[in-house]
Amino acid sequence: MAVEKLSTRHLLGIKDINRNDIELIFETADNFKDVINRPIKRVPSLRDITIANIFFENSTRTKLSFELAEKRLSADVVNFAASSSSVSKGETLIDTVNNILAMKVDMVVMRHPYAGAGQFLSKHIKAQIVNAGDGAHEHPTQALLDAFSIRQKLGDVAGKKVVIVGDILHSRVAISNILCLQKLGAEVMVCGPTTLIPKHIHSLGVKVEHNLIKALNWCDVANMLRIQLERQDIKYFPSLREYAMMYGLNKQILDNLDKEIIVMHPGPINRGVEITSDVADSKQSIILEQVENGVAVRMAVLYLLASQRD
Amino acid sequence: MQKRTLLDGQKFQITIKRLCHQLIENHIDFSNTVLIGIQPRGSYFADRVQQELSQILKKTNIKKGNLDITFFRDDFRRKDGIVSANSNTIDFIIEGQNVILIDDVLWTGRTIRAAMDALLAYGRPEKVELMVLIDRRFSRQLPIEPDYIGQQVDSLNSQRVKVSWKETEGEDKVILLSESNK
């Protein structure tokens, strides 16, 4: 019986964890996948733990996925959405969170519109923090579940070629994915219009390609990102229609490739923009598997973090 | 480190055979009875019992599963680190069945408590019995007693009982390890 633990107390970003941590999370998630496919989908591991889900930004999938993961581990869950709270009355982040912690909360799952919010909080409060997305910085659990889904579909992540297509500039999913895939030994390429590719992205050791067909011919897996219109303060391309024509993935493109690739999407999908409906619903798409794996991976993260005492 | 052998060679084989015959006395043809080995070390014992029963009864369909109790332990967050989980392989329904929980060593009883909890996720068994190869007497922390016992030993809390199996360690043997005083 090997006794193992993560090298970190918080999950703030993929940047702070190493390959062993990621593999430990995956192995634990395998066990939890088994749990959530049983008739009784619940284990009592976290029954004396209270977790606050604090979302300063909208979310459906991630919030639901975290909440399910927490409930399946028997944790007590409190939810907090910034729109209906005192944040709109001018309370600071630390005050808000400290008030929640005063109610004896052990862990905080937080989404925030500003990069580094989780990092900042982890230095000022006692609870363990799980970053559920901070601005355009990191979204570690999404990257973990994406890599976990690739591992499940292809057997291994090491040596695989993954292209991330779309709005790399505004995407926390892209950064976390790049770091996670590279730590696991995969090759990563980013693809999109010049305006949506950050200037210094090559310093992360990724390939850059502006032609979608070339990128798809190179890869084993294509992760199609959503255009984040809500973060785009200026126009980065002439029109959505033009973007869809240049960088949208349709069935015709997919069928004309000389190999079968796997199509992923972190959701929410803008059907007809980054991918068409027939691609999203095709056999090559593992979008719904990603969602299922999301619960198992989040259970693993919460379980492993909770196992560390203060 | 001092070692004392509790069981090996022929005595080991006879003990397993005797336990199997005791099981047959109560469960006759195993048509409504399943074996569940507690992961990781109880599953080796359960494998052996299944083999032995198949030979004695000339039957090949005795059901056996492995149960992992990691997520049901009561020492989570009370120890440093965690014990990594093993797989559950129970590909039958235990609702209404007689279940024989199998583990190699019974000590405090906490593992069995967790196993009973974990088992309920697979349905409501008709009856649950407990079989252990080694029973460390007088050391229980919960009111749990085995139905089938290979051998009872009196041991100190500082001592350890180690069971090795031919399939994994190359030899069937049970030893009692104690820290030497010097």
Structure commentary:
Chain A has eleven helices and ten strands. Chain A has 310 residues and is of the alpha/beta class. Chain A has two domains: 14-139 and 292-306, Aspartate/ornithine carbamoyltransferase (Rossmann fold, 3-Layer(aba) Sandwich), CATH 3.40.50; 140-290, Rossmann fold (3-Layer(aba) Sandwich). Chain A has a five-stranded parallel β-sheet with strand order 8-7-6-9-10, with helices on both faces. Chain A has a four-stranded parallel β-sheet with strand order 3-2-4-5, with helices on both faces. The model of chain A has no long low-confidence stretch (mean pLDDT 91). Chain B is α/β, with parallel strands linked by helices and 182 residues long. Chain B has helices at residues 9-27, 41-57, 110-119, 166-169, and strands at residues 2-8, 33-38, 63-67, 82-83, 98-106, 127-136, 148-153, 160-164, 173-178. Chain B is globular, with a radius of gyration of 16 Å. The interface between A and B is medium-sized, with 28 and 24 residues. Strand 1 (3-4) of chain A pairs antiparallel with strand 4 of chain B, so a sheet runs across the interface.
